[in-house]
Amino acid sequence: xxxxxxxxxxxxxxxxxxxxxxxxxxxxxxxxxxxxxxxxxxxxxxxxxxxxxxxxxxxxxxxxxxxxxxxxxxxxxxxxxxxxxxxxxxxxxxxxxxxxxxxxxxxxxxxxxxxxxxxxxxxxxxxxxxxxxxxxxxxxxxxxxxxxxxxxxxxxxxxxxxxxxxxxxxxxxxxxxxxxxxxxxxxxxxxxxxxxxxxxxxxxxxxxxxxxxxxxxxxxxxxxxxxxxxxxxxxxxxxxxxxxxxxxxxxxxxxxxxxxxxxxxxxxxxxxxxxxxxxxxxxxxxxxxxxxxxxxxxxxxxxxxxxxxxxxxxxxxxxxxxxxxxxxxxxxxxxxxxxxxxxxxxxxxxxxxxxxxxxxxxxxxxxxxxxxxxxxxxxxxxxxxxxxxxxxxxxxxxxxxxxxxxxxxxxxxxxxxxxxxxxxxxxxxxxxxxxxxxxxxxxxxxxxxxxxxxxxxxxxxxxxxxxxxxxxxxxxxxxxxxxxxxxxxxxxxxxxxxxxxxxxxxxxxxxxxxxxxxxxxxxxxxxxxxxxxxxxxxxxxxxxxxxxxxxxxxxxxxxxxxxxxxxxxxxxxxxxxxxxxxxxxxxxxxxxxxxxxxxxxxxxxxxxxxxxxxxxxxxxxxxxxxxxxxxxxxxxxxxxxxxxxxxxxxxxxxxxxxxxxxxxxxxxxxxxxxxxxxxxxxxxxxxxxxxxxxxxxxxxxxxxxxxxxxxxxxxx
Length: 716
Ligand code: CA
Fold this sequence. Notes:
The protein is of the alpha+beta class.
């Protein structure tokens, strides 16, 4: 069934390419360097995750526009068999075929016009890999090149598939088994090199990004982002010269903690300058004092930085650090966009980022020179930037130095996170999925490391959202999201659409004067790009986080977005976001066209009832459970045992009533395959029973709240 379609496509591609004269080989994913360089004018296709090397996520298509978008309807949808976890992938469309990844790094090829499944590939990532995924078992997309589809599998394998049938061509490990890293970002392919970083700065790893031969998988160069143990000497890597700049900016025995600075999301390329750009993550641990052995005044290069390297060799060209000496999880890994702007009357080649630390940065991308920076959300960690973009940091923000809690804004969720932004050359505006979050940073006094939890020098129990109604209400009110249209030349807001709730989707903008964004409630919305007027929406049942794309097949324009809710904030934030998501979670490709008449399957939303066993444990046992739950369980099951993602809400778990089944899961690994691994090396039977007692108490708290709210006073 596949081959007929493939052959037909191949013929169409061959004809099209003969016309533009840029390739000899017909066939699926027939993308080469010439096509990638000309991607901006290849209006029908979306060949790389950001559509073009400059990653603007702008579609020049305008058949769907502000005047007729109200006629947009569902053209087709496809439900993936993936387990309902967070879906963050941007699909790719080449010559009528869509390639997309889902949670657990699965890859699918679909007919982009009809939605017919052409093939699916499951890398069979071991479930226990989930424990090393800080922010859900997500995948942000694939790359295509010369007849192959490339995916970074969560467990560290970079995999090249035959685009015609999804069969594996080669696999290459990008880190050793046992290292607490994962692959989540879309590979980028530049000049025959596959660029791949990894995650893990919450677990104690040393960041790097590598380039692999797209044909064979052989490693061509590696750039470490932070120094290693000086006693081990140079790495023999592309970053050796750069590490001479970085090493003096670290204190203590930093290498014991890994250092962090992982490259897990934002990557861009300028062909004229031959420069590859990438952002780096936070230092490991977050806690500055622990990381630097108490030495003061250390910037810790190149954490939280935007770097430029020669793409052929990986040789260092420049860096800009957003948050020197960071201790607030302000990764500089957010989406990077390249654009040519007129700033102060001069033509500037810029690189832009709406960073997790709340600032919108505009840098000269040839030199790294700071052009401007302005906060786009409230910020509490700095009093402002100097003329070189360096932040002034007040003493009270240095919580690990003072030893006192600090209410940081933004929180670790960032002013924006991985959710892609988009730039529209016609309006000159950047569209940002913005977040307002506060967070209580509380330093941990010991540096005990765990193989099951974040190792960031943060006290999860003390930093837990206090279960006090007024504090809870304040935290909830202070956690918001908005769609922000930002003028990068004048560094000011053009318009915003205020959302009550946080963690909305990434954005797409088009030449039809449109911006598209999904919501946690499962609404997919079109706004006018110049004014932010809501023009159209579709009820998609499931929360949407991913960025949308637009493409054309046989002269018809389509808008596509992947639905599915999860990720870092919904997993960990508990009460703050629990009632602000859709009830359903279906991993589903949604594709729209003018006059589309398709309908979605019936919504099967169900929520398990609260049905806890009697609360019989002593207050001391519940307290012990609270202190264990927060470091070990929060990051997946949610603060205060309240799950706002689609990882089970333990208060509603049927296993809550069975000490034996509970223990089998936590200490015998009966759910390893789903990512809930055996914790027996660090937790005892008494520990696990105390955690169960705490969750039972929290279930009764929730029942009591329900009764107060409904005034029934009846049994639950
Ligand atoms: Ca981080």
